[in-house]
Amino acid sequence: MSGKSLGQTMLVGRIMGECRSEQKGPTDLFTSTPQVKKMAEIQQFNVPQSYRDTILKWNGWGYRDSFFAINKNGDVEFTGSRYEMSGQALPLLRPWFEQNLGIDLDYKTPSQPQQQFKVDPPNNNQVFIDFLRVHDIAYSNAPQHRVMRAHGHTVHDMMHLRYGKIPRYPDLIVWPKDESQVEKIVEAANRFNQALIPIGGGTSVSNALDCPLPEPRSIASIDMALMDHILWIDSQNLTCRAEAGIIGQTLEKELNAKGYTCGHEPDSIEFSSLGGWVSTRASGMKKNRYGNIEDLVVHLNFVTSKGLIQRQCQVPRLSSGPDLQHVILGSEGTLGVVTQVTLKIFPIPPVKRFGSLVFPNFNAGVAFFREVAKHRCQPASLRLVDNEQFIMGQAMKTENKGLWTGLKASASKMYVTWWKGFKVDEMVAATCVFEGSEEEVEQQERRLYALAEQFKGVVGGEENGRYGYRLTFAIAYLRDLGMEYSVLGESFETSVPWDKVLNLCRNVKQLIKREAKAAGVKYPVLASCRVTQVYDAGACVYFYFGFNSRGLDNSLEVYDRIETAARDEIIACGGSISHHHGIGKLRKQWMKGTVGTVGLDLLAAIKHELDPKNVFANANLIDLPSAKL
Ligand SMILES: Cc1cc2nc3c(=O)[nH]c(=O)nc-3n(C[C@H](O)[C@H](O)[C@H](O)COP(=O)(O)OP(=O)(O)OC[C@H]3O[C@@H](n4cnc5c(N)ncnc54)[C@H](O)[C@@H]3O)c2cc1C
């Protein structure tokens, strides 16, 4: 993937310089229903060809050329050439799918072809469209643009794309190229009764981008893809200012080229945007060293229906009443548009090293993590996978590489399983990323590994650690393979105090299996978790679950029942509604229990004050009392 200098791509959204304004993508293949052709003429102005339309899948995760497929030998293979795993076979993965989810290669549930995907006609607000034209703001109501901005990446989104249709599309897409154009769009929306939904990378996993069905107004999606530039880097104060549409990997790559990092690395960094991170209160895997997004944001600009919110000074901390930036962080597109963000940046650490540890069981691993938090000796990243994920990780070995490469010699494996008495169906693994100077990293390693010994931890080597983190990006593509064979899968997460981690993990996993069986699932069910973040007072736990829907005629209903029951169980076990995925429309039902009635009223009052006409009408976070609008 070739990098490009700033300025070269002023007119296109970029992922590592991959887009060209002249590129045409097969998204042109979407068809309009006959009504669209009759009722609504395609209206387009200055449409940029952004990465979203040219290199991303229309009905799944990630790059179009990268997916898991069954090759001619019957093995799973990862296509393309973008990832280390690309072009390689994973001979253990198919047996893993068969054993753990009961898939049968003869029973395929392929997606509908793109050409058959029908798009409803747009509800054009002509006066708003004319305004955009006069003010030189790019727009389109073409079906291919509307489909690509109508969803995030929940199971529902994928099921709609693969087998049905999206219940409601944005009627128009607008591409502001700077903050002043965003201000004009918001002003016009208020004047001409237009609803708006901002979209960054489109990686939402909370139905936050879905257009609400009851919304009677025309809905325009504000695609931030053109606002993707670093505006300045301040090496004195170690800050940078960037436009909110910049995609994580582009931001990081351009900072790296100048010797800096922003340190924020969510697993979705390849496709999620800076504005999206702020709007969802995102968390990155290296938060131990750099902090979560709320720790990294120094300052931001926010365009609301009432005008621009920005601080009058760019200082590191302020005592001036409640922090208004915390009203914006996590606002999920309900209050306005994040246009520019000043972030802390850091010199790239001279040394980055991976590491891994193996523990006899999950309890020992969690006890170790608790001790690490007490001693505050967590490296930049520290993750603990349970036995199910440990086994799954091994099943994703390519022909040449494996989780056990660090313990390559069979003598080492014997050391763990025979000499140390670990059981293969109980042992778990932790992976780490250490960053700093050579001395700092050595010291971090020594301290962590010495502590691990107290919990029977065995050092698994650097290569195993590296492998664990590399898998992160590939795992996101696995669901699409499962869906080809009737598997529905999802991940969800929570924040939980230390004393409740074990109980919560065990209960939620058991509940998922119980609920699936009760709902008629006839095949083995995947329920697995990992501890992904370490805090003084608790941890973030991240679950994967999946089941084979073969034979069920109400698979989405079954899925919803299990997911809802799992969230209820999480909350009953002392966990939270979310740690970093946010609320969207998916988890709204638990907001009252989370913030209380007074809290809900306060959120509604803020919404009413900033956006009295509910122009930002994505209906995330809370249901608005109609009297207030
Ligand atoms: C495979 C995968 C891995 C993930 N890993 C992580 C992870 O490690 N950590 C994590 O925190 N999350 C993760 N997520 C969730 C998701 O990536 C985050 O919520 C991310 O912050 C969303 O950013 P985005 O740019 O894609 O936002 P979008 O999906 O485009 O939008 C999300 C919400 O933010 C609003 N929004 C977007 N941009 C703006 C803006 N400029 N102004 C106002 N509102 C805006 C939208 O209206 C919407 O409500 C993951 C998701 C997937 C699919």
UniProtKB/TrEMBL annotation:
Enzyme nomenclature, EC number: 2.5.1.26
**UniProt-listed Pfam families:** FAD-oxidase_C, FAD_binding_4
Residue ranges of every copy of the FAD-binding PCMH-type domain listed in the record: 166-348
Q: Which residues bind FAD?
A: 198-204, 280-283, 332-338
A GO molecular-function descriptor = FAD binding
What's the source species for this entry? Answer: Mesorhabditis belari
Key words of the record: FAD, Flavoprotein, Lipid biosynthesis, Lipid metabolism, Peroxisome, Transferase
Tell me which residues are marked as the site Important for enzyme activity: R383
Task: Describe the protein's quaternary organization and the partners it interacts with.
Answer: Homodimer.
Lineage of producing organism: Eukaryota, Metazoa, Ecdysozoa, Nematoda, Chromadorea
Signal peptide span per the entry?
none
Q: Which cofactor does it need?
A: FAD
Q: Which InterPro entries match?
A: Alkyl-DHAP_Synthase, FAD-bd_oxidored_4_C, FAD-bd_PCMH, FAD-bd_PCMH-like_sf, FAD-bd_PCMH_sub1, FAD-bd_PCMH_sub2, FAD-linked_Oxase-like_C, Oxid_FAD_bind_N
Report which reactions are catalysed by this protein. Answer: a long chain fatty alcohol + a 1-acylglycerone 3-phosphate = a 1-O-alkylglycerone 3-phosphate + a long-chain fatty acid + H(+)
Regarding protein family, the annotation reads:
Belongs to the FAD-binding oxidoreductase/transferase type 4 family.
The protein's name is: Alkylglycerone-phosphate synthase
Question: Localized where?
Answer: Peroxisome
GO cellular component terms, alphabetically, are:
peroxisome
Gene Ontology process terms (BP): lipid biosynthetic process
The UniProt entry annotates the active site at: Y542
Listed SUPFAM superfamilies = FAD-binding/transporter-associated domain-like (SSF56176), FAD-linked oxidases, C-terminal domain (SSF55103)
Q: What does this protein do?
A: Catalyzes the exchange of an acyl for a long-chain alkyl group and the formation of the ether bond in the biosynthesis of ether phospholipids.
Q: What pathway or pathways are given for this protein in its record?
A: Glycerolipid metabolism; ether lipid biosynthesis
